[in-house]
Amino acid sequence: MSHMNKVRIIGSYLSPYVRKVLVCLSIKGIPYEIDPIIPFYGNEEFSKLSPLRRIPVFTDDKVTLCDSSVICQYLEDRYSSSNFVSIYPNDIVNRAKARWYEEYADTYIGNIFIWQYYNEVVIKPFVWKKKSDQIIVDRSLNIEIPKVLQYLEENVPKEGYMFDEKHATIADISITSFFRNLFIANAKFDVERYPFTFSYVNRILSLSYFQSLIPFEKISIASPIPNHRTALAKGNAPISNETFGIDKPKPGAFSERPSS
């Protein structure tokens, strides 16, 4: 598949929405290069590509897209031959259900895991140098996140993947991408209370598609934000030649909601 045009992803390895797209690219065997910026550090050209200043942004030889669900559907449609693994179930009913889980993850789980919890314990102190709101953190851990865990406990498979598929689909990828951020933020839970949920999440995260991203995530965590490109390049990440990044954060219309 060396004849394929390499795609470019703009966005941080720490974003669950970027992670979702990178996993889909990996499953389909599509090479990529990445401009690993955090959206708050995007320049004016980035604003033109992503009017809401959200990540990921996807570009190839035909299109520029800036929503993870739209990007994944585009990948499925463009790379749909028998040479590429499908990231959506073939059955019409299961495909619709998979899209529901993707939407549930991107909106509801994303709002709680990222907007409420991760934003308070990671983004606010490290990007904006602001103190976390412990009331929001406690409510997330004690009320909102358990609601998600209970819903998943009643719906995820005890073995394998959603819908008895032979490989991970967009439902598995979308849900699990957000849990990785909780683990990065060292969130603590009563794992024994939700055994099926955490068994499922750990099963999906153990796949090579996710595991291959962890070294780049660790580099991003350990490096000052303006140094991400240099540090990741030294770690053999497929860094793009050009960047849309700047040295200081710049709030946008949705500066507290960086991904999509």
From TrEMBL:
InterPro entries: Glutathione-S-Trfase_C-like, Glutathione-S-Trfase_C_sf, Glutathione_S-Trfase, Glutathione_S-Trfase_N, Thioredoxin-like_sf. GO terms for molecular function: glutathione transferase activity; maleylacetoacetate isomerase activity. SUPFAM superfamilies: GST C-terminal domain-like, Thioredoxin-like. Residues 5-83 form the GST N-terminal domain. GO terms for biological process: glutathione metabolic process; L-phenylalanine catabolic process. It comes from the Eukaryota. Residues 91-225 form the GST C-terminal domain. This is Glutathione S-transferase.
